[in-house]
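YM 10:42: AAA domain-containing protein sequence, as discussed on the call
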Amino acid sequence: MEMTQTQIIAVANHKGGCGKTSTVVHLAAELVESGKKVLVVDLDPQANASLHIGTKHPSEVEVTSAELLSSDNNLLIDALEEETSFRNVSLIYGSLNLGKTEDQLKEYSPRPNEELKSKLEPLVGIYDFILIDCPPSLKILTSNALSAADSVIIPIESGSQYGLYGVTDLINHISKINRINPNLKLLGTLLIKHDKRQNVCKLIQDETENTVGYLFNTTIPTSTKVNQAAILKQSLIALDKKSKIRLAFQDLTNEILMRLK
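YM 10:58: structure's back
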């Protein structure tokens, strides 16, 4: 089997509702469209990425990311689900049990922030991309994602005056994780629900540019199609290939591939 250069990307922001999951899900579909083999790792107790991509309900799955992280045994093969509702996208399911996992890691793991990195190691060279959907917090689960990742994407809700709230905490957290994972870099900040005609969006864009920088040129517009796709368990490509939002995710994917070259 030909070995491949694996890129591990964490999509993180401890603010809820800023589009982390939809970024992970639709980026996964677009990467497959450009010929890549993709794995999604769901580290969010709400397991929305799993509900969207998976063919089973997370509560029916025996080995999720929670069991993978908290077990001493190598459960990777059991956790990997290759049959999903997205062609060529594999999944490690999220689970409500992830809430307990943080405490277990703190108590039992000698390196609580590095469990995911060691558990995913055998997959390096097998997938082109591993995308990690982080929970809305800066605790151990997000630290695990950042410790395992090569790069991080920060989605920011552009249409909200609280969009940038706490982003400096996240940037500081990333620099702390750099002590464990010196290779981790910020791939870009991504404006979600962005409408360039709105003043609040323009302000958030300028403010992001000034405080964080690394803005993607591509912005993601508001669209009801994101919810439709989630309900129908489809990608935007399957739902409406020529829609504005689908084309935005296609542009984002091309921009990411360019940045990683």
